[in-house]
Design brief:
This protein is an alpha+beta fold and about 130 residues long. About 40% of the residues lie in helices and about 20% in strands. A hairpin with a 3-residue loop joins strand 5 and strand 6. The longest helix has 13 residues. The relative contact order is 0.19.
Length: about 130
């Protein structure tokens, strides 16, 4: 559903009411100039990755790149959380007109295909809620 209107007319309230009426989680992506993929889709938990490396080094072993870039260290941001959710949700993309053209193009592609590619590991296919290469 696309809602357009002046500030304060209740577009966000409609999304909240819809999620409540349907019994679904509301996930909000707030757009602004300079929004990048890390803030909207995902980023890596570098602190946890570094800690895991140090713990493995103390134990005399190492970690492979595949171990470090796994779902265990992935921080989901709003878009990935909505697409990867096992339960249907309401995704509110607020103030999309403030996003850069490149981000708008990415968003259109991600929502059209309803999938996100995470280059370090695999393409996320939400229909089956699993990782695939």
């Amino acid at each position: 559903m696309l809602l357009e209107g002046d500030a304060g007319v209740g577009k966000t309230a409609v999304a909240a009411a819809l999620s409540q009426a349907l019994g679904r989680r509301l996930i909000r992506l707030q757009c602004y100039e300079g929004l990048d993929l890390q803030q909207a889709v995902y980023e890596w938990n570098y602190g946890r990755q570094l800690l895991a490396i140090r713990l493995h080094e103390q134990g005399g072993g190492g970690m492979s790149e595949r171990d470090l870039f796994s779902q265990d260290y992935l921080l989901e941001r709003p878009l990935l959380a909505a697409i990867s959710s096992e339960q249907p949700c309401v995704l509110l993309i607020d103030e999309i007109d403030r996003a850069d053209e490149a981000f708008e193009a990415f968003l259109l592609e991600a929502l059209a295909d309803y999938q996100i590619t995470i280059p370090e590991i695999a393409r996320f296919v939400p229909v089956t809620a699993r990782w695939s290469c």
